[in-house]
Amino acid sequence: MEYLLLTHNDLDGVSCGIIAKYVFKDKVDVFYHSVNSLDYHVEEFLNENSEKRLDQHLYITDLSVNKENEANLEKYVLAGGKIQLIDHHKTALHLNQYTWGYVEVEESKGKLASATSLFYNYLVENNMIKRTPALDEYVEQVRQYDTWEWEKNNNNDAKRLNDLLYMQSIEEFEESMLERITKNNHFSFNDFEEKLLKIEEKRTDRYIRRKRRELVQVTIKHLCIGIVHAESYHSELGNALGKEYPHLDCIAILNMGNKKISFRTIHDNIDVSELAGKFGGGGHAKAAGCSLTKEAYKEFVEKSFAIKPLKEDARHNQYNNKERCAHYENKEDEQFLLYKDRKDNWVIEKNHVLMGEAFPTFETAEQFLKRSFSAGLSKDEKLISYLLHGYENMK
Q1: Measured between alpha carbons, how far is residue 36 from residues 40, 61, 282, 331 in Å?
Q2: How many C-beta atoms lie closer than 10 Å to residue 58's C-beta?
Q3: What's the pLDDT tens digit per position in 213-257?
Q4: If DSSP states are collapsed to H, E and C, what string results for 79-138?
Q5: What pLDDT, in 10s, does the model give residues 259-299?
Q6: Where is the DHHA1 domain (predicted)?
Q7: DSSP sequence for 22-38
Q8: Cβ of 247: how many Cβ atoms within 10 Å?
Q9: Would you tell me the crossing angle of helices 156-166 and 170-183 to the nearest 10 degrees?
Q10: Which burial class, exposed, middle or buried, applies to 305 when counting CB atoms under 10 A from its CB (0-12, 13-18, 19+)?
Q11: Which is it for strands 250-255 and 223-229: parallel, antiparallel or unpaired?
Q12: How far out from the chain centre does Cα 237 lie?
């Protein structure tokens, strides 16, 4: 083979493989890797390559290499080897020091890059591929999903594209997408896929509702983190839990089967790639991950094991609805009343005893309450009971 592509096994990485096969046809071999398995293949490639194979062009996309492979790839290039690494994670920016490294976090100001969009632009700029509407649309869907712009833009089709990948094998997805971008003028889902995706969306909703009741809250590395064990729907679950519990800085999703942790956040001021980096991982500002190392196990599994799940906010209240005052409780049966005092500040009572701190807004008061006491909005009858009890004590 004239070309070899080593890429990630998620939507962004797989889409790099699809574009490579679109361009190079049967002249390329594509291998899909996890973050941990790439370096083994790179080592194997470098060990097997002799001078007679220097004509083979190696592409690495959506993944970066370790220090040892970094040095050996540079030696290989200096000896005449052809390598191009294309990535968009800021943890790989140091690879731009090499002629074979092309790492960009943004395509342009305010527009985040994906590996697929960078690879596509690279091929276009080097006259190896011509733009088409179908390719442009497909690449943009992948970019928006991988950078989470799909949510800001309310582009549900980008999320559904990722759903479709995980509903079938990579080979099936590859074949289907290749045929579509080759034969169609525009990118879209077919009728059968639309039906499958609707079924999958219902299944995802049920899964999230179940996992919502298992979320626990801990403080790790000065962050207030929600921890849940889950094997599926990590992106959807992290996003839903982040919205449900905005007082949490991020969500950590533990998969004990493959010993991985996925981090998700909905907050612009939180960079979960920095948190993942403290445990040997990396990723994006809003989506990152790491392996479940001994240190990570101690922090995320041992520390949270004995903690009770978070108290969910009551959903169908008529009176206790976060307006004039709101009643909360936690799994330790502690009760809290949040209300505005005569000085127009928001204050909190704990078990009918006024706490010392005052807050300028309801949101800051509620955030303090939830982060400090893992409390959830109680049902109407609990508010009424609390107020009546306080009234009786005043007589």
Answers
A1: 8, 14, 12, 39
A2: 21
A3: 999 999 998 999 999 999 988 888 999 999 999 999 999 999 999
A4: CCCEEEEEECCHHHHHHHHCCCEEECCEEECCEECCHHHHHHHHHHHCCCCCCCHHHHHH
A5: 999 999 999 999 999 999 999 888 888 889 999 999 999 99
A6: 253-303
A7: HHHGGGEEEEEE-TTTH
A8: 17
A9: 130
A10: exposed
A11: parallel
A12: 9
DSSP 311: P
Q: Determine the Cα–Cα distance for residues 219 and 168; give it in Å rounded to an integer.
A: 37
Structure tokens at 309: 């799940």
Q: How far apart are CA 272 and CA 250, in angstroms?
A: 7
String of DSSP letters for 248-289? SSEEEEEETTTTEEEEE---TT--HHHHHHTTT-EE-SSEEE
Q: Sheet containing 3-8: which strands, arranged edge to edge?
A: 28-33, 3-8, 57-61, 82-87, 101-103
Model-wide pTM > 0.90: no
CB 57 within 8 A of CB 84: yes
What percentage of the chain exceeds 90 in pLDDT? 81
